[in-house]
Amino acid sequence: MMKKWQIITGTAASVLLISVNSYLLLKKDSEIDRISYVSQYEETKRGDLQEAFHTEGVVVPLEEHKVYFNEQIGAFSQFTVAEGDTVNPGDPLFEYESFNIEEDQRMLEFEADKLEEQIESIEDHIDELRSFIIVIEAKESTETADEDSTNFIYNSVVDVEKEIYQKELERELLMAEASVIQKQISNIDQQNNMLTTLSTYAGTVTDINTSLGNPVITIHSDTPSIKGSLTEEDVDKIEVGMPAHVFAADEGKINGIVSKINTYPEDEPSLNKESSYPFSVELQLEEEQEALLTGKHVNVNVVTNEILDAVTIPVKALSTAGIAKNAFVIGQDGTLQETPITVGLKMGQTQEVVEGLSSEQLVAIHPDIHSENDITSFNTPIWTKYISKTAIENLGTKQIAKYIFTGFIQR
């Protein structure tokens, strides 16, 4: 009888315990926390993201130079180069007998003076740009600037330095041309009225017109570039100045920059066919990289958008509700918090986070949520490889019972 009574009492107590816990867990607005389950999580990271436009191209010479002969100023004598010859600025191309050697000399001297004025003008402009950089950097060192102001100053200096670089290139080209003209003046043969036309370019002679039809000589630069074609849909996707990566078979990646986009189509516009627009990529070969063979076909990736040092998370860590984006952040206090975030550029399975997260935070991947609250406690799987038999044996009976009871209540 006593045993029967104990059985009834134990059963009733068990039913009561289960009923009370079930009621508290399932009751709306219950103060009892529901525990979520996190089986996988990752850390937010900082990294660079790129968005690229993919197309194809072919290797062509960077520049094509045409040399002309004016039959009204003299009688042609002879070519001093042949097809396939490599020439540099100052190398002789052809000779002719001048009809008015004094006038030709005056014209060359006038051209030399004009080039000298252009060189001086560029040098003055370069000095002004360098002075501007000094003023900007001095202002930055004397003022307490926020991050936006610092970035603006940095970008301004970078832009000015780019302009200085371009002006220095222009100056070098003009100086090379002036040097060639001075050499032509010194080579004038007053006695025989002979003049020698010198090359102002470096490259390879690809064509000589022996019938003296202009151009009499064509010179292709030895520096390669990439030429491609864009459809009507794609022509607005890239801009001059965008970085590009060129991939050729067995050559690896070669960096470059979009140098030209034609706004007029390759062929005459027609209602019956789609227009295509040529574009060019100027290559930036490293010292150890060999020039690509003319005519070789390549793949081109143009970087249309680039985010440096962005906070990123895996795409699978995003929780989407309509157009809103959220992530479940694991706090240092052991809680799981659903956090609204603003996303930016996406590259593959990596998502930029513009607002809402910082680097080195833990985010849960597809957590099993059992709470309507924004902040909830959570459990993770038991990683048996981190459990030692010795650690379990050192636990007392009361501790084991406490952990079992805690786990039962939480689940």
Automatic annotation (TrEMBL):
Its main location: other. Keywords: Coiled coil. Residues 66-211 form the YknX-like barrel-sandwich hybrid domain. It comes from the Bacteria. Residues 105-132 form a coiled coil. One of its GO terms (cellular component) is cell envelope. It is found in: Cell envelope. The keyword Coiled coil applies. PANTHER family: EFFLUX SYSTEM COMPONENT YKNX-RELATED. This is Efflux RND transporter periplasmic adaptor subunit. It comes from Bacillus mesophilum.
